[in-house]
Amino acid sequence: MKFSLVIPAYDEGATIESVVRGVVRVLRRDKFDFEVVVVDNGSTDNTAEILAALKKEMAEVKTVRVFPNRGYGNGFLTGLSNSSGEILGWMHADSQVDPEKIPALYNKLLSEDLDLCRAVRIERKESFFRIVQSRAYNTLFRLLFGGRHRDINGSPKIFKRAFYERLNLFSRDWFLDPELMIKAMRIGSKIGEVEIYWDARKGGPSHVSLLTALEFLKNLLKYRFFSKGLLNINEKQRSLNSASSLRFP
C-alpha cells in the first residue's frame, strides 16, 4: 500500500533538508511505496529554495506552497488533501523525532489492524516549563474527555485513509491533534502507540507560545461543552474543508 507522509515547514530552512533526507533514506531502505508531501507553510526564509532542490533530486518528494501562513493545522490538512496514499501520516519538520521510528508506527498500524498509530514522547529534551505544561495539558484532556491516552500532541501520527476521511477534520490552528484524538475516541477507533525519544529542537525558536497554550485551553472547553456543533459537521462545512486551503482566512 502506498504511504503518504505530510511534513509542513514554516521557516524551517535550518532543518528541513536533513529531515526530508532522513525520512526518504529510511523509507527507501525499508522498500516502502511512498511519497513525502512537504508543505511550505508560508515560509519567509529559504525553505522554498531548499524544497525545490530536494524535489528535483528525489522523485518521492512532492511540495505544496501555502502563502501566507494560515496556521499549523492548515499545513497538515493541505498536505493531506494533496496526498494519494492509502496510508497517511504527519510529522514535524524540526528534527526532534528520529525517522527510524516511522516504520515501527507504520508496521504496528498494519499488523494490529489499527485505525491510528501515534508516537508518545517518553523522554523529552525540552525546557522544564514545556514539560510541565504538556503534562498539565494531557491531564486536563483526560479529565475532560476520558480515556488513558498519553501525549495527545505526540508526532508522528499514521492512520488509514478511510479513518481520516471519516473524521472530517477542520482545525486550521494548533488544535488539529486534539481534534483528531477526540473524534477518534468518539467513534471507537482502534488506537496504538509507539514510544519515542524527543530530541531538542534544532535551527531556531519554536513557534509554540503562551498564546498557543491559551488557544488549546479555549478549544478543549469548546469541544467538551459545545461538542454537538463542533463534532457533527454539516455537508456545507465538509465541502469547504475539501477545498483549497488558500480560500480560508
Please characterize this protein's 3D structure.
- InterPro entries: Glyco_trans_2-like (IPR001173), Glycosyltransferase_2 (IPR050256), Nucleotide-diphossugar_trans (IPR029044).
- Residues 4-161 form the Glycosyltransferase 2-like domain.
- It comes from Candidatus Wolfebacteria bacterium RIFCSPLOWO2_01_FULL_47_17b.
- This is Glycosyltransferase 2-like domain-containing protein.
- There is one protein chain.
- With 249 residues, the protein is of the alpha/beta class.
- The protein has one domain (3-247): Alpha-Beta Complex (Spore Coat Polysaccharide Biosynthesis Protein SpsA, Chain A).
- Helices cover 45% and strands 18% of the residues.
- It has 10 helices and 7 strands.
- It has helices at 16-29, 47-57, 72-81, 101-111, 128-145, 161-167, 176-186, 210-225, 227-231, 235-242; strands spanning 3-9, 34-41, 61-66, 87-90, 116-124, 157-160, 191-198.
- The protein has a 7-stranded mixed β-sheet with strand order 3-2-1-4-6-5-7, with helices on both faces.
- The longest helix has 18 residues, at 128-145.
- The termini are far apart.
